[in-house]
Amino acid sequence: MDGKSTNPGDLSWKPLEALGELTVYDDTSYDQIVSRAKEAEAVILNRCVIDRPLMSRLPRLRFLGTLATGYNSIDTEAARERGIPVCNVPDYCTSSVAQHAFSLLLSLCGRCESQSRSVKEKGWETAERAVMQSPIPELFGKTFGILGFGDIGQAAARIALAFSMEVIFYNRSKKDFPGCTQVSLPELFQRSDVLSIHCPLTDETRGLVDKHLLFSMKPTALLINTARGAIVREKDLAQALNEGRIAGAGVDVLSQEPPAEDHPLLHAKNCILTPHIAWSSKEARQRLIQIVADNLKGFLSGETQHVVNP
Fold this sequence. Notes:
By secondary structure, this protein is α/β, with parallel strands linked by helices. It has helices at 14-17, 33-37, 52-55, 76-81, 94-110, 112-122, 124-133, 151-162, 185-191, 211-214, 234-242, 282-300, and strands at residues 42-45, 63-66, 86-87, 143-147, 166-170, 180-182, 194-197, 222-225, 248-251, 271-273. The longest helix is centred in the C-terminal third of the chain and has 19 residues, at 282-300.
């Protein structure tokens, strides 16, 4: 339904083409889904919404696959009632997201882009003096906190350990990981020099990172969010940045994408924004397509995998 977000033309759909008659649409609006999918037995989508009323208008539908790990755009209960499995793609972008979290962190710490621009526009000596007036922090020995300690959180932990950082994490269930310490949620925010969010968006985590937790952080702390925008109360984060309650933020995800022109983080101090691209390395997208094809192949052979609505 919306293949362009996964494959803008640099990858192949051959793994799916091998399984049947495939039609790929770059983008599909809600109003176009029925006309385009009414004859389809399998529908694969990323951000398109398939709710109960729309699903009832797709009589031939037998399989729903997501080009993503998240599946909140699909009414999974309605699909379950009709015996339609919804299959997602876990773990395809673990390394890419962890890497992007550190890209945001290093951008905040090193300010390489602004320094390069300053060298080109103002000269070497002027740029050098500006850096000395606002020194670059060293990550060595700092405390790296992780909110949510699944596969991506653990991948981020490995990178932080390689930087010789102290790693602490909060997770609902007990986890053991070499070199890392599990702590309470308040302690995570109070102790972290860098806090990186890697938990899923659920009813429990929606709006979890609020003014109370943000204001408990060190004024030198940095917040990184490559998970889901709605986990953070964005007005509270903007206030924390603008008032100097924390030193900076690197954000790849927002609660509304694309954001409205008056979104508070677009104008917040020391806030780096990227357009939800942490998952999108070429290698991750190739894995994504292959796993989607494997999900459909498993369904066709009676061995369905990665079902989120059993």
